[in-house]
């Protein structure tokens, strides 16, 4: 739960175990309204440490005409990172770590917003193995529920502060 004006940070993590991965493609379903991405729609994600130094092939908010199968009231974000050239051993990443970080400012009320990994026949969240050819599907985690409410009006907050009390007392004199 957030308040309008709050910044929300969401880390996308991978638990690869011993799996030798060289990259990941993530599609993330988010509320279409009420969030403004930092630094912006052209690159909403920051690369996490798991694939640090990798090449970003995609980091964007997809246009509405490319979000086939997505429900109403949702937008689709895409992040693809792959380690560069080298031997499979050089490219391999394993273990657990942050793949990407998504930061947003809550700009309007959100009721029952959902953020989740999105998969369908066209938009597939996949892990690329170190051989650069093999791709595996991912297990989708639970949905993250997000709501944003308007904060108390500024005038109401000031009435309870020391400055508000001072103004009230000066009117009574």
What's a concise summary of this model?
The protein has helices at 88-91, 154-159, 162-172; strands at 2-3, 7-31, 35-38, 45-47, 55-61, 74-82, 93-106, 110-117, 126-129, 135-137, 144-149. By secondary structure, the chain is mainly β.
Defining key terms:
11-stranded mixed β-sheet; mainly beta; 173 residues; single chain
Write structural notes for this entry:
This protein has 173 residues and is mainly beta. The protein has helices at residues 88-91, 154-159, 162-172, and strands at 2-3, 7-31, 35-38, 45-47, 55-61, 74-82, 93-106, 110-117, 126-129, 135-137, 144-149. Strands 1, 2, 3, 4, 5, 6, 7, 8, 9, 10 and 11 form an eleven-stranded mixed beta sheet that branches. A hairpin with a 5-residue loop joins β9 (126-129) and β10. The radius of gyration is 21 Å and the shape is elongated.
Tell the overall outline.
elongated
Sheet of most strands: 11 strands, mixed
| Integer average pLDDT | 84
Tell me the number of helical segments per DSSP (H or I, 4 or more residues long).
Answer: 3
C-alpha-based Rg, rounded: 21 Å
Low-confidence stretches: 152-173
The structural class is mainly beta
Give the CA-CA distance, first to last residue.
42 Å
Could you state the order of secondary-structure elements as H and E?
EEEEEEHEEEEEHH
Q: Helical content, roughly?
A: 10-25%
Which SSEs are present, and which pair or pack?
Blueprint: E1 2-3, E2 7-31, E3 35-38, E4 45-47, E5 55-61, E6 74-82, H1 88-91, E7 93-106, E8 110-117, E9 126-129, E10 135-137, E11 144-149, H2 154-159, H3 162-172
Parallel strand pairs: 1-11
Antiparallel strand pairs: 2-6, 2-7, 2-8, 2-9, 3-7, 4-7, 5-6, 8-11, 9-10
């Amino acid at each position: 739960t957030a308040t309008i004006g709050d910044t929300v940070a969401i880390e996308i993590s991978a638990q690869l175990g011993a799996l030798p991965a060289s990259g990941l493609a993530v599609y993330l379903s988010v509320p279409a309204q009420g969030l403004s991405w930092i630094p912006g729609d052209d690159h909403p994600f920051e690369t996490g440490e798991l694939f640090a130094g990798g090449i970003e092939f995609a980091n964007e908010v997809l246009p509405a005409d490319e979000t086939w199968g997505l429900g109403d009231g949702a937008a689709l974000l895409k992040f693809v990172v792959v380690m560069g050239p080298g031997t499979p051993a050089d490219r391999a990443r394993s273990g657990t770590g942050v793949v990407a970080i998504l930061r947003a400012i809550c700009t309007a009320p959100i009721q029952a917003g959902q953020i989740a990994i999105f998969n369908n026949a066209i938009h597939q969240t996949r892990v690329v193995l170190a051989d650069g050819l093999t791709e595996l599907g991912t297990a989708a985690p639970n949905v993250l529920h997000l709501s944003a409410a308007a904060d108390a009006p500024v005038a109401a907050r000031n009435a309870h502060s020391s400055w508000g009390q001072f103004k009230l007392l000066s009117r009574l004199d």
